[in-house]
C-alpha cells in the first residue's frame, strides 16, 4: 500500500475509524457539561481536532501495550535439565545465568558439564538459546568468553 510521511495508509484509516467514537463521546460530554452550547463551526471543528488527537493517543498506547505483551516472556531460573531438553526456550533462562553469574569463574570443562556440548571451540563458546519473542528469524545466542582457562564474561546477543 501507499505511504504518506513514511506512515502506512492503514494507520491513517485506523485513526480515522477510532476518531468517530471519540467525536461522539466529545459531543456527549460537552452537552452534559455545557447544555447551552451551540453546534457551530467552532464546536464541530474543535470536536474533530480533539477526537483525532484522542484517537492518535489511544492508537499509540494500544500499539505500545501490544508491543510490550508480545515482547515480554517469562524469565525462569536456570535448570540444567530444562536447558538440555528444550533448546528452543533457553532464552527464558539466560537472564538468570547472566545475573547470578552462574558460569563466571568456571573452567571450560565445567561449562560443558553444566550447559552440554557446543559446536564452538576456542576462547568463546556459543550456545543457541532459541528465537526470542523480540522477533527476528535467527536464534539468539549466549556468548561465553574464556580467558586464562576461566569464564570472564557471559552475554546474550542476536545473531
| H-E string | EEHHHHHEEE
**Residue fraction in strands:** 15-25%
CATH class membership of the largest domain: Alpha Beta
Sheet with most strands: 3 strands, antiparallel
Number of helices: 5
Structural features, described:
The protein has 5 helices and 5 strands. The chain has 159 residues and is of the alpha+beta class. It has 2 domains: 3-71, no CATH class; 80-158, 2-Layer Sandwich (Beta-lactamase Inhibitory Protein, Chain:B, domain 1). Strands 3-4-5 form a 3-stranded antiparallel β-sheet, with helices on one face. A hairpin with a 2-residue loop joins strand 1 and strand 2 (7-8). Helix 1 (9-33) crosses helix 2 (41-71). The longest helix has 31 residues, at 41-71.
Short overview:
By secondary structure, this protein is an alpha+beta fold.
How is this fold's topology laid out?
Blueprint (H helix, E strand, L loop, with lengths): L2 E2 L2 E2 H25 L7 H31 L8 H6 L5 H9 L8 H8 L8 E7 L9 E8 L2 E9 L1
Antiparallel strand pairs: 1-2, 3-4, 4-5
Features of the shown structure:
single chain, 159 residues, alpha+beta, Beta-lactamase Inhibitory Protein, Chain:B, domain 1, 2 domains, two-stranded antiparallel ribbon, 5 strands, rod-shaped
Amino acid at each position: 500500500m501507499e505511504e504518506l510521511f513514511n506512515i502506512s495508509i492503514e494507520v491513517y484509516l485506523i485513526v480515522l475509524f477510532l476518531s468517530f467514537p471519540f467525536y461522539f463521546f466529545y459531543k456527549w460530554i460537552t452537552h452534559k457539561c455545557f447544555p447551552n452550547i451551540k453546534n457551530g463551526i467552532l464546536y464541530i471543528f474543535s470536536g474533530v481536532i480533539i477526537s483525532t488527537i484522542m484517537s492518535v493517543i489511544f492508537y499509540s498506547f494500544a500499539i505500545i501495550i501490544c508491543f510490550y505483551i508480545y515482547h515480554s516472556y517469562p524469565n525462569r531460573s536456570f535448570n540444567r535439565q530444562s536447558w538440555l531438553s528444550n533448546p528452543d526456550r533457553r532464552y527464558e533462562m539466560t537472564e538468570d545465568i547472566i545475573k547470578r553469574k552462574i558460569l563466571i569463574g568456571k573452567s571450560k570443562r565445567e561449562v560443558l558439564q553444566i550447559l552440554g556440548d557446543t559446536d564452538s571451540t576456542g576462547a568463546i563458546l556459543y550456545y543457541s538459546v532459541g528465537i526470542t519473542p523480540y522477533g527476528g528469524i535467527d536464534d539468539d545466542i549466549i556468548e561465553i568468553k574464556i580467558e586464562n582457562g576461566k569464564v570472564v564474561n557471559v552475554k546474550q546477543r542476536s545473531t
